[in-house]
Amino acid sequence: MLEPERRFYNDLSKQEQDRWTSELRPHPAVAQLTPLTYVAYRHHPVYYLYCENDEALPVELQKMVVANTGIAFKTENCTAGHSPFLSQPETVLNFVKELAA
To answer: pTM of the predicted model, to two decimals?
Structure first.
């Protein structure tokens, strides 16, 4: 991925961007091309936190992916970039708490 600091961590400080970028490892492309053998979201409740400032997967694309599943997702929006668990952990925690209630 080109510019992982910007694409994955655009809403973090430069120091945090460097830290988390150093943790990234290569991911084999075959994982994206291998057909699924079980699609769990067709059998369980599903949730999606749209990240409005995601520069790796723009929110319009996130919404298209969710819509193309044909499944009714419970969704929420947040202003985070691609890694809300790092930049907005309270938002993610509140989303999960709401789902668990």
So the answer is: 0.87
